[in-house]
Amino acid sequence: MKNLLLLLIMISGFAYGQFEVTESSNNWDKIGKTDAAEIIKNGSLMKVRFIDIQSKLKNNDPLSTFKTQSQRNVDKIETAIIKGNEGIKDGFHEFIFNSEPDTIDKIHAIIIDHFANKKKEELTLTFPEGNLYLLFNSATGFYAASIGIDSNNKRVYSAPMLKAQINKLFNKK
């Protein structure tokens, strides 16, 4: 009986020993977050997450409060079909890259320098994992910066962020 119990314990150990948890969402530490984007860190890995501005714009319907629930449901389905046909992704876009200890500070310095000069341009930051784009403009009437990445053979950008939002995103005062 003892041998049978020992055998069952060994078999259960082999059965559950087939995988190992190597990463969890709890391993990522938040650097900063705004409504437009967030930056999180795990060791030397950095992750920039944001929702595509086109996706956000497709969801805004100023007349939705005057519509019935069934009409709002129909509108949601139609919007999902339109987004699918245009290749717009619902949910977060992510860019994960290896970084030096001061990479975030350097990116923040570049952005703050552009806010001081109010220069309208797009910068490309090239990492081995891909490109990260910084778009500076004042199309909204305020000088703002957007973060972008390549996704499905096109560039997608976060919502424009003001200087205070950029400081919050990079956890700077």
Map the helices and strands.
Elements: H1 2-16, E1 29-33, E2 37-42, E3 45-51, H2 53-59, H3 69-86, E4 92-98, H4 103-117, E5 121-127, E6 130-137, E7 144-151, E8 154-157, H5 163-169
Antiparallel strand pairs: 1-2, 2-3, 3-4, 5-6, 6-7, 7-8
Structure description:
It is a single chain. The model has no long low-confidence stretch (mean pLDDT 79). A hairpin with a 6-residue loop joins strand 6 and strand 7. The chain starts with a helix and ends with a helix. It contains 5 helices and 8 strands; from the N terminus they run αβββααβαββββα. The strands form 2 sheets. A 4-stranded antiparallel β-sheet has the order 1-2-3-4. Strands 5-6-7-8 form a 4-stranded antiparallel β-sheet, covered by helices on one side. The radius of gyration is 22 Å and the shape is extended. It has 173 residues and is α+β, with helices and mostly antiparallel strands. Helix content is 36%, strand content 30%.
Number of helices: 5
Distance between the termini: 67 Å
Strand content: 25-35%
- Whole-number average pLDDT? 79
- What fraction, in percent, of the residue positions are helical? 25-40%
Strand order of the largest sheet: 1-2-3-4
How would you spell out the order of helices and strands?
Answer: HEEEHHEHEEEEH
The total count of strands amounts to: 8
List unreliable stretches of 5+ residues.
Answer: none
Gross morphology: extended
Overall SS class: alpha+beta
* Estimated radius of gyration: 22 Å
Largest sheet: 4 strands, antiparallel
